Fold Histone-lysine N-methyltransferase, H3 lysine-79 specific.
Amino acid sequence: MGADELEGSFSPYKIRDHRCYLEEQGLTDPTPPTPEEHLYNQLYELYPQHVGKRTSRKERRQHGFVAASLTYGEICFGPFAGLFQVLRNDGLQPGGKFCDLGSGAGRAVFAAALSWDFDKVLGIEILEGLHELCDQKLLPRFDLHIREKMESETRREVDVNFIRGDATVIDEWISSRVVFANSTCFDRKLMETLARMASNMDPGCYFITMTAPLPSDDFELRWTGTMREAWGDGTVFIQRRVDEDALEAERLARELRADLRNQRQQFLKRRQRAREAEAATRAPFVGGRAVKKPPPPPPPKGERYDANKPPRVQAYYPAGQHAAGFGGQYLQRMAVFALCRRVPDRGCCYVHSPMPHDISGLKSDERCSTYEAGKAKNSVVPRFLKPNDIKWYMVADINVRKELRKMYDAVAHPTKQFECDYRIHARRGMHRDGLVPNATYVCLVRSIKKSDENAKICIFSEGSVEQFGELVKEDVTFVLNGDPAETFHGLVTAPNLFLGHSPLSQAAAMLATQAKVYTVPWEPGMSRAVANCWSPGDCSACYAKRKDNVPCCAPRNARVVDTLRNLNTWSLMGVTDQSYDRDPTGKGTWAPLPP
């Protein structure tokens, strides 16, 4: 049987390389390797598979690493290159970035560079020995001996890079068009962590795993089959990121269909009871006139808000949902409050629910002040689409911010005043889990002093002074471990406020309508809605990740702005114009109009 016959006999759901099969059977393959595979073999001629395996084993034993997720495994070029043909058939276009999570000796990274027209290929590896093998030996060899021999001009220009670190901490791979994880030995917790991070990938991007699919509803399975690897056959799963708006629309449609069925059934039951009651009052004529019908019973308590102009919906945020501190809970309620203000014709009223350290002054609108959140008719919890920036841009409306500030001022009774003109909310520690390094704050303080020699600067944070490293030597005042209400008020009343990566300072920024609001030289997610860049600072010099002259903070999120421009407010409320709610007379229907 020739090579073509063998290849044609395989199931279309398998990408197993026929040369691997012939090798197992002790047969000779008459088909020579492709030019790309020849270059791949030339690259690894001095570094066969046992080199990477030995390097991995040595470092794991030396440091006592026992996690199964660090088990070493490698791909075979032919079957792996076949994956890109599957992706091409599914609509993958040239360009974009490829990333291998746990890149080992870099085989998948270089195979991707040789097999498809990517702009950039990236490998992330946590073991130092394997990273150095790729970065210091294989990459220079690729640039010197392989790159110029590649037939495709586009592939000759591909940017190949390797990063040492933990893929659950480094988020650079999220911007990739194709992500590969040789995940056979990954445990459930690691897969769930990667799934949560991958939910931030753009719609249409691909995530390829081995043995088990990515546990996420944000991805749809596009292809599965068997692929040969260095250790044997494995099951491969190709999943594609679902469009967020389509996913949310489908979920809302499902819930609304069930809700409308239920409302329709209730409507039919009420109508049947009304007809039965009317029939019971009919009687023969007495004295030349019919028996007078009794007046209709009053509507059940809670079904109507105001006889003249009832609000169409009552929006609230459930107490304790997505448990967070004061800042996080406050921001969620601000978003619901702001969305309610976007509903035309006073068709929504905000109902306040309890929250930790409730010093916000937030209270229910007058028209629904007697109702408890979630208990009255037409209560809704808005469903905000991703990205989360949509909530912050919604609250950024200056009229909404002034209304929130007015309520806050009505209840705020501070006992402490702060003399500083520049107030920075800092998250202490080095950059891990979203914390900004101390060196960044040192750079920022010096930049402020350079701009204003007489600047008085306060650092609001927690912990002890010693934890701020070199920042202690600067001319600043530390306000540490203060009363939450006093700290929050100090941020709200700041003339110049610098946001930290914290919901507390972000909530304060929404209320600080008098302040000039800036970001620290690292962009927290929501700050673009209300904050400006502190331009005098040299961000690339004081924040290690800024090696490519990226500005201190990014411009306004165009995707969010477009989403808000075309926003259907009622869809966020989970309501359509076909929702039924009969009035007490039984003649009308409750139907909110689109904005």
Notes: The mean pLDDT is 77. DSSP finds 19 helices and 15 strands in the chain.
